[in-house]
Design brief:
Layout: E1 5-8, E2 15-23, H1 27-34, E3 35-37, E4 51-58, E5 61-71, E6 82-89, H2 91-103, E7 107-108, H3 113-120, H4 126-137, H5 141-151, H6 154-179, H7 189-207, H8 210-218, E8 220-226, H9 232-240, E9 258-264, E10 267-273, H10 283-298, E11 301-307, H11 314-323, E12 328-333, H12 343-350, E13 354-357, H13 366-376, H14 393-414, H15 419-437, H16 444-451
């Protein structure tokens, strides 16, 4: 990389410290120009990763009192020369330091550009680079541990084992093509079938983890639906343990979606409180109701809240229709006000759906609801030493394509199709696996898409 980039790597706002980082050919020189040590000091490779104390100066004006680390290639995150400056954590301080670095010749870093350079310089493969963003965004200890396992090369190792196995099968086929008279005589069909079945099984085992992987990475997309004033917002507040949503006796208080994450026994829940579903002439509320219906169609889990103290009406029936055939939990709320609904009615209408009687006012049934959610989305014992879990849609897609090519090759082998066709499928499978780690067919557009999801400064 020719140019030197710089960025603020900590969140903007008040904090104990702020970090501005820089990487590239001129990083050390620009850092030396900006930094004035408290004692006369000439920076050299002996200072690699050593914290030095002093000030950042713009000409004669002190910007901040700082600690600074000079890091020399190739033993850095990007494998380029790097500088990290630890300032006081005010918005003004980090911005002024960054502005000075840009004035001295650095350029503003793009999203994920530090990690992109780490990939391009061979410090990380593409699956490890993607694990960095998962690590930053991890919402539970389980998802953190799995991201860390991938960052340390867990998926890279799995892919390499598969590619090595495929290369052995390819070599076996190519020898048969090139050195036997008819391309069939010297090929042991049974041996090749066994090898392909093993590879198909290994890829399928990885793909079998995708459901757990998606829950680990993104959480369970959970929608709370119900008529106005049945207790949806009260439920959200109880699950969050804070007054997040406005609760009143006036129907239609919630007009838009409210979204929060909670952690229930290491299962991340993306919890969405929606507008109460009812016929309304209020244009704003009507839009909110339409959003509620649309979100319920895409949810991993629907928590449907009904007022047990009142008989079912047409709006309740509409909600029942929404949750038919979907993964759902039914809450019959306000049991402290008496019962006008028999729980068995819901069993007849919805079949095997978990039904819990609750009182938001008295916090009855909340623990049972949490247990029911965990039971529905139980992840088992996922540890960093238990193997990789596929949580990335790109990885899943490439594994599926590789599996499809292998199954095609296996089918051709059984049908005694010419070996040249078999070779094409095997090579395609090998290439698709290589795209997971970036060893094959990595386009600039793909890299821009992947690293565009990162924050600036990482």
């Amino acid at each position: 990389m020719e140019h030197t980039i710089a960025a603020i790597s900590t969140s903007i706002g008040e904090a104990g410290i702020g970090i501005v980082r820089m990487t590239g050919r001129d990083a050390i020189a620009i850092g030396e120009q900006a930094f004035h040590p408290i004692r006369e000091h000439r920076v050299g490779e002996k200072d690699h990763r050593v914290l030095l104390y002093g000030h950042i100066l713009d000409e004669d004006q002190v910007i901040d009192e700082v600690l600074i680390a000079f890091m020399f290639a190739p033993h850095t995150y990007t494998r380029e020369d790097m500088v990290e400056i630890y300032t006081h954590g005010s918005t003004v301080s980090v911005k002024k330091v960054l502005e000075l670095l840009l004035k001295l010749g650095a350029q503003v870093a793009e999203r994920g550009e530090f990690t992109k350079r780490a990939f391009l310089n061979g410090r990380l493969d593409l699956s490890q680079a993607e694990a960095v963003i998962d690590l930053i965004q991890a919402k539970t200890e389980r998802s953190y541990n799995q991201s860390l396992y991938q960052l340390n090369g867990g998926l890279k190792h799995e892919v390499q084992v598969l590619r090595d196995g495929l290369m052995r099968q390819l070599a076996y086929v190519e020898v048969a093509i090139n050195f036997s008279e008819d391309g069939q005589e010297e090929l042991s069909t049974e041996k090749l079938q066994e090898g392909l079945r093993g590879l198909i099984g290994q890829i399928q085992s990885l793909l079998d983890t995708t459901n757990k992987g998606k829950i680990l990475r993104d959480g369970v997309n959970t929608i709370i639906i119900g008529k106005p004033n049945v207790g949806k917002s009260s439920l959200l507040n109880l699950l969050l343990r804070e007054e997040r949503a406005i609760v009143t006796d006036v129907p239609g208080t919630t007009r838009d979606v409210i979204e929060e994450f909670i952690n229930i026994r290491e299962v991340a829940i993306r919890l969405v409180d929606t507008a109460g579903i009812r016929d309304t002439q209020d244009q704003v509320e009507k839009i909110g109701v339409e959003r509620s219906v649309e979100l319920s169609k895409k949810a991993d889990l629907i928590v449907a809240v009904f007022d047990i103290s009142k008989p079912l009406d047409e709006e309740d029936q509409q909600i029942i229709e929404l949750i038919k055939g979907k993964k759902a939990i039914v809450l019959l709320n306000k049991i402290d006000l008496g019962s006008a609904i028999v729980p068995e009615e819901f069993s007849k209408l919805l079949g095997d759906v978990k039904i819990i009687e609750t009182s938001m006012n008295h916090e009855i049934g909340i623990h049972e609801l949490e247990e029911a959610i965990v039971e529905l989305f139980y992840l088992g014992d996922i540890h960093s030493d238990a193997g990789i879990v596929i949580s990335n849609a790109r990885h899943e897609d490439l594994l599926n394509k590789s599996l499809s090519a292998l199954e095609s090759a296996y089918g051709d082998l059984i049908a005694q199709v010419p070996l040249d066709c078999l070779e094409v499928d095997l090579r395609d499978a090998w290439t698709k696996l290589g795209e997971i780690t970036g060893e094959t067919a990595t386009t600039e557009d793909l890299l821009d898409k992947i690293f565009g999801e990162f924050c600036i400064g990482k």
